[in-house]
Specification:
single chain, about 375 residues, alpha+beta, Rossmann fold, six-stranded antiparallel sheet, about 25% helix
């Protein structure tokens, strides 16, 4: 018997330093457990906070019944600054494939956050115990920036099971965080292998591998991949695979000023170091090529940036470093204009895959090559 994750998100500084998300709200979303078990617990992160934050209520709804999560026996609790902590163990029989509704009421501003659940909704006030929920409220800034509802504080949900899953981590940027290829791939793994494997999402919107983006908005893009790799990837027990999908944002910051940090040589060196560490630990590494980004709403994407993306992709394809390569670029690009994403596969911004684009990527994976199963 051991604890195995059924849901995960990588913690990043809250969008706009948490001022827009505010406080005293209930966030509701659903997770599906890939394993059966008798107990559940939740992990909270306060890596970026300078002071404790308060969770005013957390409930798990299963089969229409409410189950209250506590910490140190209290329904209202704080998470210390600079730390991670677990809730108390909740006795809750969970069946493989079961959907659980999570309701989180955060009573104070939370700095650790992410946006990976497209169907998450929020409500002013505490609605963790309501049998019927009011209409959800979506903030204007979320529509403006095409953002999901943030899930503050929580970074992992675990089930105590006799059959812990082998963990594959999707390590990427917003294209990963948006879950449009990760969730369909999770489903394919579950349909093929049951709870033998669990695919965890460690994507952060705007994230780079080599570059810490400056400014207020840059802070919400998280620490660069080489800095967060240990916390967001190596921290998993039972780690068996990593899907590496970082770099398309790095090329968008490439210039004479950043050339000492962002270059083909720096990228190859950093990726090689990461892959070597994973291989020494017996972990498979799957690489995704960098998708097209010409035409993305942000201005200033130059020929030099695009040339760097093309060179990085050539290296990924030709390198013998990886156990498997999924050519996301070849799948998503417009065949007549290969620096652009095919109009059928982006959400309207020429970069982020829509549902069809995400499904295309997920369906393209060879599950035997992904898992190493013969």
């Amino acid at each position: 018997m051991d604890w195995t994750p059924i849901w995960h998100q990588a913690a990043a500084p809250a969008f706009a330093m948490g001022f827009l998300a505010g406080k005293k709200k209930t966030v509701v979303y659903s997770v599906i457990s890939q394993v059966s078990g008798e107990k559940l617990r939740v992990r909270f992160s306060n890596h970026y906070g300078k002071k404790p934050y308060t969770i005013g209520g957390l409930t798990v709804w299963a089969h229409g019944e409410m189950h209250t999560v506590t910490r140190d026996g209290s329904r209202v609790f704080t998470v210390p600054a600079g730390e991670s902590c677990y809730s108390d163990e909740l006795t809750l029989p969970v069946t493989m494939g079961e959907e659980l509704e999570i309701r989180l009421y955060y009573a104070s501003k939370v700095m650790d956050s992410n946006m990976i659940e497209e169907n998450a909704v929020s409500y002013p006030g505490n609605h963790t115990a309501d049998r019927e929920l009011p209409p959800p409220r979506r903030e204007r800034y979320m529509e403006q920036y095409n953002l999901y509802e943030a899930i503050p504080g929580m970074d992992q949900i675990e089930v105590f099971t006799g059959q812990p899953s082998k963990i594959i981590v999707a390590f990427g940027d917003s294209i990963t965080a948006m879950n449009r290829w990760v969730k369909p791939l999770q489903r394919r793994l579950f349909d093929a292998y049951g709870g033998d494997y669990a695919l965890m999402n460690a994507g952060i919107g705007g994230n780079c591998l080599l570059y810490d983006v400056p400014g207020l908005m840059g802070a919400s893009y998280g620490e660069k991949g080489v800095s967060r790799f240990e916390r967001d990837v190596l921290r998993f027990s039972e780690l068996c695979g990593v899907i590496f999908a970082l770099g398309v944002n790095d090329v968008a910051y490439y210039s004479q000023k950043t050339g000492a940090v962002i270059s083909l040589e720096q990228y190859c060196s950093a990726v090689t170091d990461i892959v070597d560490r994973l291989h020494k630990a017996g972990v498979r590494v799957i690489a995704q090529t960098l998708p097209p980004r010409t035409g993305f709403v942000k201005k200033g994407y130059t020929r030099e940036m695009e040339a760097l993306r093309v060179r990085i992709n050539g290296w990924i394809r030709d390198s013998a470093l990886f156990d498997y390569v999924l050519d996301a670029d070849a799948l998503l690009r417009d065949q007549k204009n290969p620096s652009f994403t095919d109009e059928r596969y982006h959400q309207g911004d020429h970069l982020h895959p829509n549902q069809a684009g995400g499904m295309l990527l997920a369906q393209a994976y060879d599950l035997q090559k992904l898992t190493g199963e013969v």
